[in-house]
């Protein structure tokens, strides 16, 4: 497995550990896969603060996806860079069509644990190749999940992906987390992905830089660490986590954007 694909084990570990504690995220599949794969991670990747972050991010994406599905029950859900994530199982809202996409070796591993159905498919998908969007199913509305993937793409590649989505679909809802340019630079020196050999990361300071020539607009910015989830931590952990990961300093490193095109 290539180094960039190995990064999927970092959020998998975080979600499995938090799920075992019975807080933030209920993810028995993450627990099962982590137990079976036992991928060797170390250092910052095993930090409890990172596990909280990974679980909260996943929960925020889950809640947003369910809200979008309540608005557009016939939408296609497209999770790009899905890794081994079990959002397709965690979501309680019914969906008509869901595609989890990632690199070939990731999808091959994923198929050990997930089964396709009439409503759920796994596909090989490289987000840096916008032409692959043409091969996706036709639909009026698409809900696009870009969790933990934008930092491995240049601004130009993200823009190309958005242009391709715009050409394919009339209504587009996107949730995407990004590093700022400062965050990407800082990550070269202190980031868990370094421990699996990833060195090149990209950041976005101005979200408009990836919306050039598109009709996609920025609808809102969301928090990775909403208070209701922080409150699930034990008192000391809650106080420290709130100080380190919920304020303006954290936003200088990491942001979460909701984008949309509605015709």
Number of DSSP E strands: 7
The coarse overall form would be: globular
- Tell me, rounded to a whole number, the average pLDDT: 90
Number of helices: 11
Report the biggest beta sheet as strand number plus sense, adding barrel if it closes: 7 strands, mixed
Helix content: 25-40%
- Rounded to the nearest angstrom, the radius of gyration is 17 Å
The residue ranges in which pLDDT falls below 50 over 5 or more consecutive positions are: 191-198
- Classify the beta-strand content into a percent band: 15-25%
End-to-end span in angstroms? 40 Å
- Structural class assignment: alpha/beta
Compile the SSE list and pairings:
Elements: H1 3-6, H2 9-21, H3 28-37, H4 48-71, E1 76-80, H5 87-90, E2 97-102, H6 104-110, E3 120-124, E4 141-146, H7 155-168, E5 171-179, H8 181-187, E6 217-222, H9 227-230, H10 235-245, H11 248-251, E7 254-261
Parallel strand pairs: 1-2, 1-4, 2-3, 4-5
Antiparallel strand pairs: 5-7, 6-7
Describe this structure in words.
By secondary structure, the chain is of the alpha/beta class. The protein has helices at residues 3-6, 9-21, 28-37, 48-71, 87-90, 104-110, 155-168, 181-187, 227-230, 235-245, 248-251, and strands at residues 76-80, 97-102, 120-124, 141-146, 171-179, 217-222, 254-261. The chain has a seven-stranded mixed β-sheet. 41% of the residues are buried.
Briefly summarize what is shown.
With 263 residues, the chain is an alpha/beta fold.
Main attributes?
263 residues, alpha/beta, seven-stranded mixed sheet, 39% helix
